[in-house]
Amino acid sequence: MNRQGDKLTPARVLVFGFAAIILVGAVLLTLPISTYTGINFLDALFTATSAVCVTGLVVVDTGTFFTPFGQVVIMCLIQVGGLGFMTAGTIIFVMLGRKITLKERLVIQEALNQLTLSGLIKLTKKIIMFTFLLEALGALFLSTRFVPIYGWQTGLYYSIFHSISAFCNAGFDLIGGFRSITVFNDDYVVMGTIMFLFVIGGLGFTVLLELQEKRNLRKLSLHSKIVLVSSFILLVLGTAVVLILENANPETLANMGIISKVANASFTAATTRTAGFNVIPTDRLHDATLYFLMALMFIGASPASTGGGIKTTTFSVIIIAVLSIIRGQEDVFIFHRRLPFVIVNKALSIIVVSSLLVFGVSLLLTITESARFLEVVFETFSAFGTVGLSAGLTPDLSPAGRILVIITMFAGRVGPLTLTLALAQALKKKAPFRYPEERVLVG
After folding, report:
1. % of the chain with per-residue pLDDT over 70
2. Torsion angle (degrees, nearest 10) of CA 8, 11, 13, 18
3. 334 - beta bridge partners?
4. 3-state secondary structure labels for all residues of 384-433
């Protein structure tokens, strides 16, 4: 029995847990009450995977294809997927008075990317309260715009749905016509609220709670400092590049005023880091812009957040390590702190494995789909980064293509997490001896 129990590691619990929720969601979406015209299981599975993995890629229009019941199912899947099923499950256990076992605490520790087991239940409660508070505030602000347009009932419903979708970095919308929120690209309240929610959600619960507790940037941990600095740099750099590349594009930014250009470019740069909403048509962007946005999608959000990708800290660690090598420094350090090489090795492994996954899926999609190469690669990066942006390929994916994207979305949501745990366990195992050292030529 012990051997069998040992096989069910926290990483496997997370994988099986996410898979089980996806399957339950897919079954619910196939019910007649969920859609107006019916849906096949593959499309339901695709939608459920996209919701639980907080991606936002859709093969059918969420706002017009699904009934209110189906939309609520999707909203619940997004909420559970964004928080993590163990976070939601922990709150249910606490409410029922059930004791959280050591095994469950280990899974929670892995899900939240925490270094220790102490204070996990308290942290989980704070995450739930923080999430619901921000989503409620987001819905309140959105209602000031949606209620006058859609009426009280629909306006409040839209406000709640989009607030949850934004904070969880899901990118699902109910506007209809596969338009996302492009009809609000001149509404700064809607744009600002949604952007604020998905940027905050993408920073990670660890950083948010640390900011709330310490309220002093100098006292923050190295992790939080790297997350905040890298997120700021990527946002500013992304905004500048989108402005430069799309400034003269008549189908995106050319006909806007300077304030609107900056607002739309900032939103576009931020949303590619796993949010999935778009205010300008993605399929109208220049190829150079799409190519640049793929890099942002690959990096993604931060650890213990509602987003995906390889994570900002992973990317930052590798950049810092490369700069250290160029400078001829033996140690890797930043903010007067030295990074252990085990962290550098983990970051490098995550990037390599993720790159191989994206390359392999892109190659297979070029075989299964009759679309432009850039559209196929963009779709792959979007699925892996759990972003949800598409150059128009998603609804036209073949059955084989849909299965490949489902696998990629799932891997993008749980892959880096599982990989980190696996590497941590492997690296902690020390051999009883060391082999002789010998150098090889590289570079």
Report:
1. 83
2. -150
3. 337
4. HCCCCCCCCCHHHCCHHHHHHHHHHHHHHHHHHHHHHHHHHHHHHCCCCC
Please check whether residue 181 is in contact with residue 145, taking contact to mean a CB–CB distance below 8 angstroms: no
Instruction: Specify whether the CB–CB gap between 123 and 112 falls below 8 A.
Output: yes
- Say yes or no to pLDDT of 95 above 70: no
Q: Which residue has the tokens 């640390």?
A: 210
User: For tokens 């700021």, what's the residue?
Assistant: 232
Q: How many residues does this entry show for the chain?
A: 443
Burial of 23 (0-12, 13-18, 19+ CB in 10 A): middle
Q: Positive or negative, the Cα torsion across 222, 315, 118, 427?
A: negative
Place of tokens 């399957």: 23
Token pair for residue 136?
A: 């409620």
* Residue 196 pLDDT > 90: yes
CB 240 within 8 A of CB 345: no
Find residue 11's DSSP bridge partners: none
The domain locations on the chain are 2-424
Count of beta carbons in the 10 Å neighbourhood of residue 105: 19
- Extract the tokens encoding 434: 């060391």
